[in-house]
Design brief:
The complex is a heterodimer of chains A (about 500) and B (about 350). With about 500 residues, chain A is of the alpha/beta class. Chain A has 16 helices and 22 strands. In chain A, helix 4 packs across helix 5 and helix 13 runs parallel beside helix 14. Chain A is globular, with a radius of gyration of 24 Å. Chain B is mainly alpha-helical and about 350 residues long. Chain B is about 75% helix and about 0% strand. The longest helix of chain B has 30 residues. Classes of the chains: A alpha/beta (about 500), B mainly alpha (about 350).
Amino acid sequence: MKNITKSFPGVLALDRVDFSVEEGQICGLLGENGAGKTTLMNILSGLYHPDDGEIYINNKRVEMRSPLDAINSGVGMVHQHFMLIPVFTVAENIALGSGESVSTVEEKVKELSEKYGLKVDPRSKVSQLHLGERQRVEIVKALYKKADVFIFDEPTSVLIPQEVESLFTVFKLFAAEGRSIIFITHKLNEALAICDEITVLRRGKLVGNVEPRNTTRKELATMMVGTEFAPVEKASYQPSETVLEVMNITALRDDGHVALKDVSFNIHRGEIFGIAGVAGNGQSELAEILAGLRRCIKGEIVVNKENLTNASPNKLRRKGVSYIPEERINVGLIMDFTVAENCILGKQHEKAFSRSGLLKTDEIYRYAKELISSYDVMTPSTDCCTKVMSGGNLQKLIVARELTRKSDLLIAAYPLRGLDVRATEFVRQKLLDARTNNVAVLFISEDLDDILDLSDTIAVIYEGRLMGIFPQGKADRKEMGLLMAGVRESG
Amino acid sequence: MHIRWKELNISERLRTMYMAILSIVLGFILGAVFIQGSGLNALEAYSAMFLGAFSTPYKISEMLVKSSPFMLAALGFAIAFKAGYWNVGVEGQIVIGTIVALWGGIAFKYLPSILLIPLIYLLGFVGAGAWSLFSGILKAKYGVNEILTTLMMNYVAFWVGHYLVHWPWDDPEVYVPQTIPIAASAKLPILLEGTRLHVGIIIGVITGIVIYMFFKKSTLGYCIRAVGLSLEGARYGGVGVANTVIIASFLSGGIAGLGGVGEVLGAYHVILENLTYGYGFVGIAAAMLALNNPLGIVLSSFFFGFLYTGSLYMTRGAGLTIGAIQLFVGIMILVTLVSPLIENITKRKKPKPSISNESR
């Protein structure tokens, strides 16, 4: 790709970017949110048309006018948010648009999945597959369409460590066959571990190409962010009084299946309690129950010695529970609200912002400005529609709102998911600040590194049960990975 | 669909206006095709229409009289719409407004105007609001689709009105089916001597401004908008979703009902058969044309007032039959509903800015 330029109204998303990947090469594409990684790849896969620049595949100039052109040129993309139809079977999804019968596809899928060790059953419905399996379906789909260039958009964010390893094995297998891999990521360690070459983008511009053996984690991070940042430091944990007691909680999912079974744990002041596990094992439901958005059918929740089982979100907030929800968009923030309006979501009835039914507009704007400046949220103005903000800034806004209030318990559901390096460091630091301020923090994440870095106590969740609770020093990566997959080592 | 006036820059504001005007022009073009197609002169018809609405102060006053119930119906619809609640029952709520107004104008005739008129307005508001509450509660508590219940309630209201006009309240001294009149003290003050222009139009405009401020300034307005924009987000923010929907349905019906009150106290002083027939649906069209912006509704309601009064002059001016005029008005309403559609189509064509894309 040469000289690719793409602008959107008000933003120059890509500014004369060159990018190349050779046959049999695994190329990492690294950059913050808004750096233009996804835009660049969307151009390569035909979703966007560049304003300027040329694309060459095998030294032949190609025009990508539509995703179909890209498929015909051998470009396959495995999206971050899978583009599969849940009610269809695996084979039906792959057959879609190919014009071939489902039974032929089933045969071929079986063949491909055996050849590459990508275990998928072509007859099972996509809705029954977990995220790791769905990803394999996407890969098989790209293989089926005879892709030579594979684009993986943040593929590891939904996987447990063991699955990441097998994904990397697939990468190597593909590379050995002469296929090219473009691996979009913001996880430096992964990029360093697997890639032959790493391309770094920053604010739509190419920063440079480096080879992993000639660089360090720190250097890469500096290239991405533009400035150096210090790693998070953390004081040692001093046990103190209990804030949250969860006793034998059992709850159902929306579809009526059991989400949580007999879950019990305590969190103390100044403690970060990490819950590790593959997404979809009951973590979201647990967070919702603690925030009052879901009822539990059994068990008790005690906050500061007060029984608050199945209390309303409002009551829990008043009792000092803050909540960073998993869904930023349209749960944590209402996208069509202005930034200022979102700053008081959940606080709209507080005396500081509302008097005899009227909003104190001046107060709200003052408060919004304060949040934005002290949490370094990038937004055109407090009057601006929340929709236009980037993911990292949305999360900063939520963190700002939830932490700028007196709270005893902070529930943080996947607070680092999809954030770029700088925003990740920022949110991590804020979680640690909360801990320093004697807040009890429940930290849910699927990233074992984050869990191990931040938590004082770690629990592993699998199919709605806690598989074990470990103090930080006692937690072993390998054992946790196995527990996350539901395997309990004997002894 | 939700547009906040203040956050839009000038060009976007103009664009929104432009969309509305574009769809109106489109309506006139389609209307012209239809008129020409039936062998009449469209230019003549349109000039008759404009003259019919604007040529004399009286005609202008008639246009304003017609606009006021449309305005209140549209504002009522918009309030519920902001909560994500489709109150297509404004038609019936207007009928309830007329019934309550007539009853109040007779039952409390001993009161002086200064007390009687506000009292009737209050009763009309509460009556029509309570009527609307039925569907609101079904929706909020049991998840019953409000579009169906509010629509069905229109028929109930319509036949209740029909019954009252023909039997218990029928005026025996008049041959056409109409009720006995309200007391003189219940009649709204006239703004312009020799016309029917009553203060109802001022009430409409003020209501528009109040609702605009309500959504900008009040905590309840904030909660209603939160519910309409994102149910999950509202729940997260501790907004009682069910209660908010119920309150919105009440306010919505109540405001639509005020339109009916104005027709009885101001324009007619009796209830005629089919007095407010179709007003609610015109109101919905006016709300849609204005993308549910309360201030925009004030303007779009004037447009529909013009359409209704002006089009009647097309019979004399250009020889259209009443049926043909109704068809013409129908075409105009349909086309104005396209306004949000045009808005959506042009929005979809524009790619989203990359900053919001990247993180998804």
